[in-house]
Specification:
It is built from 4 helices and 13 strands. The protein is an alpha+beta fold. It folds into 3 domains: about 45 residues, no CATH class; about 100 residues, no CATH class; about 130 residues, no CATH class. It has a 3-stranded antiparallel beta sheet with strand order 4-5-6, with no helix packed on it. Strands 9-8-10 form a 3-stranded antiparallel beta sheet, with no helix packed on it. The chain has a 3-stranded antiparallel beta sheet with strand order 11-12-13, with no helix packed on it. Helix 1 crosses helix 2. The longest helix is centred in the first third of the chain and has 21 residues. About 30% of the residues are buried.
Amino acid sequence: MPSWAVILIIKQLKIISMKLKFKKNWSLFALLFVTVISSCSKNNAADPNPTTATGKKTLKTVSNATFGTVITDGDGKTLYFFSLDANGSSGCTDGCETAWPVFLADDLSSMPGLNAADVSTITRADGKKQTTYKGWPLYYYAGDVAALDIKGDASGGTWFVAKPDYSVMLASTQLVGNDGKNYLENATVGNGITQYLTDASGRTLYAFTPDTYNVNTYTKADLSNNGTWPIYESDVLNVPSVLAKNVFIQITAAGKKQLTYKGHPLYYFGPDAKRGDTKGVSVPSPGVWPILTKSTIALNP
């Protein structure tokens, strides 16, 4: 125990002894001192560095009956993804941070249930640091009071509980084609935010208009054209809560396991070099390779 702590305890016990009118009864005083020191020693033995144990922010996974495996801080406080962070930078600024405080880890030496390669740190436009998982900046929700509260999921249709095992995620941004033009959800030129499906790391997913129900009609058997529109290979794991999991199916196409959504086989666009890119919406012309949304019409079996 630090010497300053011992001195403080002695002072406090002297005050107590005076109030109880036994300040000359040093045997009783000594007994109190030994009791307090013993108690402190036991606490320190169980937690030799309590400040470090409770003061550092780290990451871990926790099992939840409703959401399955979710990502929390070291104290079990739930963390969230924001669909407007499609390009990997934070779209939550100014007043938004009051409801959705930024999470910054300062100890990533041990992250049970998580892959260290998926964790990184960005510098926001306001100069603050923020921890990311698979490129998604992490946030708290001010409405979560206790550990394991998950009250922020699906808020505004744009906030989703952070999970390590999403099959797909939802991003919300302006669609920009390979031709440099802005597009809307219906493949017409225009300005506006569209919410669409991405993979777990924020890379845009597309459908191919000629495809039929759960049938890939694009990819050649020798995969010679797979580099341009790569098959999205994924198991059916978990999806954002605003989507129904049962509309995702895994099929086999050209020897690969391809995920489908409402019967639409899912693809990447090769020239989408980074998350947030949506260049495929205009190739070879708008509407041939559309993005997918919550309102995408299902193909008929």
